DNA sequence: TCGTATCTACCTTCTAGTAGGGAGTTTGTC
DNA sequence: GACAAACTCCCTACTAGAAGGTAGATACGA
C-alpha cells in the first residue's frame, strides 16, 4: 500500500469501466491485461476468478457510494438539496462520460446469468440506496418541502427506478441530456422548491 | 409457411428468452442449438451471423409491440386505461415469468458493445414507445383525466424510464411485486382517477 | 529465506463462423 | 407428365481465435 495506486486497484478500476460499457459477459481478462499492461496470469494472481474480481469490485463500489452519500449529506443538510445533488451527480457523470451508468444497475439487468455472490452484492446496493432515498423523502415530507403521494418507501423505489431508467434512456438515445429531461419532472412532481 | 411455427421462428423465440436472461453476450449459438434441437450450423443457415439474428429478432419484437399497442388502444379508448393496461401488461409478464424484461431495455444497457445495426433498432423502439406515451398523456391532459407537471414529451420519457427502472428493481430484488409498488405511485401522481 | 508480484507457456472449453454434402421439395421446360 | 436444375434445410466436420484458468519459473524486497 505504498503506492497511491496499486496494480489491483488499477485492475478493478479498469474492470469497472469495462463492465459499465458491456456488463459481466462483455469483457475478459485479456481486455484488462491489454489496458493495464500486465499478463492475464498476473490478474489471476490478484483475483483468482472473474467472479471474485467482480464481487470485490462491486463491494468497493458500494463502499464508495456510501461514502459519497455521507459526504453529500454533510454538504447539503436539506432533503431537497440532497435529492438534487444525487441526480446532479449522475447528470454530471453521464454528461462528461466519466461513468455513463451505475455499475450495480447494469449488473442487475444480467442477474439471471450472474454468479450468486455478485447478485447478493448488487441486491444489497439496491436496498441501501432505496433505504437512503426513503429516509430523505421522509425528512423532506416532515419539513413540508417535499410532497409524497404514497408511502416514503414506495416513492423512494419509484425515484430510484426513474433515475436508473433515465440512465438507460440516455444510453438508448445516445444523448446525455435526456437524463436531465427525465429527472427534472421527477423533482418537480415531488414538489421540490427551487433555491 | 405451412407450419404454424417454423424453425427460424423457434430460433428467434429461443434467442429472445436467452437475451432477456443475459443480454447479447450472455448466450451463444450452442445454447440455441440445444434448446431448439438443431445443429449450430443450421442456425447459421437461417441467420448468417449473431448480429443478423438479434437485429431481426428486435425488429420483430418492435412489430409485435406496435401491434400490441394498437390492440390496447382498440380495447381501451380512455388514456388513463391505456396507461394502466400498459403497466398491467408488464406487471403480468414479470409476475408469471413470461418475460421478466423488455428485450430492448435490456439490450439498451449494453449499447456500447452492441453492433451498430442493433443499436439503431433498439433506439427506434425507445423513440416509438415514448412517442406513443406522449400522445396518450396529451390526450389525457386534454380530457382532464391526467395532470401533467411538465411537457407531455418530458412526462412520457419519465414514465417510460420509471417502467424500465421498475423492471430492473424487480430483477435486482428478485421480487416481481416491486414492479407494482413502483408503477402505482407513478399512476397516482399523474392524477389517474380510478374506474 | 519467505512472500509477493510478475512472467512464459500451456490447457481445456467455448466462440462464431465456414466448407461441403445429402435429402427432400419446387420450379421451369420440353 | 417426365426430368433436370435450383432451392431449402439440415447435417458432419472443421477452423481460428478467444475464453477462463493453471503450473511452474523468476525477480526482488523485507
Commentary on this structure:
The structure is a homodimer of 195-residue chains. Chain A is mostly helical and 195 residues long. Chain A has one domain (7-189): Tetracycline Repressor, domain 2 (Orthogonal Bundle). Chain A is 73% helix and 0% strand. Chain A has nine helices and no strands. The first copy, chain A, has helices spanning 7-22, 29-36, 40-46, 50-75, 79-95, 103-108, 116-143, 152-173, 177-189. In chain A, helix 1 (7-22) packs across helix 2 (29-36) and helix 4 (50-75) runs parallel beside helix 7. The model of chain A has no long low-confidence stretch (mean pLDDT 94). Chains A and B meet through helix 6, helix 7, helix 8 and helix 9 of A and helix 6, helix 7, helix 8 and helix 9 of B. The structure holds a DNA duplex (30 and 30 nucleotides). Chains A, B: Residues 5-65 form the HTH tetR-type domain. Chains A, B: GO terms for molecular function: DNA binding. Chains A, B: It comes from Chelatococcus reniformis. Chains A, B: This is TetR family transcriptional regulator. Chains A, B: Keywords: DNA-binding, Transcription, Transcription regulation.
Which CATH architecture of chain A is right? Answer: Orthogonal Bundle
Structural class of chain A: mainly alpha
Q: Quick check: average pLDDT of chain A?
A: 94
The helical percent of chain A reads over 70%
Shape of chain A: elongated
Give me the CATH fold name of chain A.
Tetracycline Repressor, domain 2
Instruction: Indicate the multimeric state.
Output: homodimer
Query: Which spans of chain A of ≥5 residues are poorly predicted at pLDDT below 50?
Result: none
Main beta sheet of chain A, described? none
**Through-space gap between termini of chain A:** 43 Å
Could you say how many structural domains of chain A there are in total? 1
How many extended strands of chain A?
0
CATH classification, class level of chain A: Mainly Alpha
Can you say what the CATH homologous superfamily of chain A is? Tetracycline Repressor, domain 2
Pair with the most extensive interface?
A-B, 50 and 49 residues
SSE sequence of chain A, one letter per element? HHHHHHHHH
Give the DSSP E fraction of chain A (strand runs of 2 or more residues): under 5%
- As a whole number of angstroms, the C-alpha radius of gyration of chain A is 18 Å
Total helical segments of chain A: 9
Amino acid at each position: 500500500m505504498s503506492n497511491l495506486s496499486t496494480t489491483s486497484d488499477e485492475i478493478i478500476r479498469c474492470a469497472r469501466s469495462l463492465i459499465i460499457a458491456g456488463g459481466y459477459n462483455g469483457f475478459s481478462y485479456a481486455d484488462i491485461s491489454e489496458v493495464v499492461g500486465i499478463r492475464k496470469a498476473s490478474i489471476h494472481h490478484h483475483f483468482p476468478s472473474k467472479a471474485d474480481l467482480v464481487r470485490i469490485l462491486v463491494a468497493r463500489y458500494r463502499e464508495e457510494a456510501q461514502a459519497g452519500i455521507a459526504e453529500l449529506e454533510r454538504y447539503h443538510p436539506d432533503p431537497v438539496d440532497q435529492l438534487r445533488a444525487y441526480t446532479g451527480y449522475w447528470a454530471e457523470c453521464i454528461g462528461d462520460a466519466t461513468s455513463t451508468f451505475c455499475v450495480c444497475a447494469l449488473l442487475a439487468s444480467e442477474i439471471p446469468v450472474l454468479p450468486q455472490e455478485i447478485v447478493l452484492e448488487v441486491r444489497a446496493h439496491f436496498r441501501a440506496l432505496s433505504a437512503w432515498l426513503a429516509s430523505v423523502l421522509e425528512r423532506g415530507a416532515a419539513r413540508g418541502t417535499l410532497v409524497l403521494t404514497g408511502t416514503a418507501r414506495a416513492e423512494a423505489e419509484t425515484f430510484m427506478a426513474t433515475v436508473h431508467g433515465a440512465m438507460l434512456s440516455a444510453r438508448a438515445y445516445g444523448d446525455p441530456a435526456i437524463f436531465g429531461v427525465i429527472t427534472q419532472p421527477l423533482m418537480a412532481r415531488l414538489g421540490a422548491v427551487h433555491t
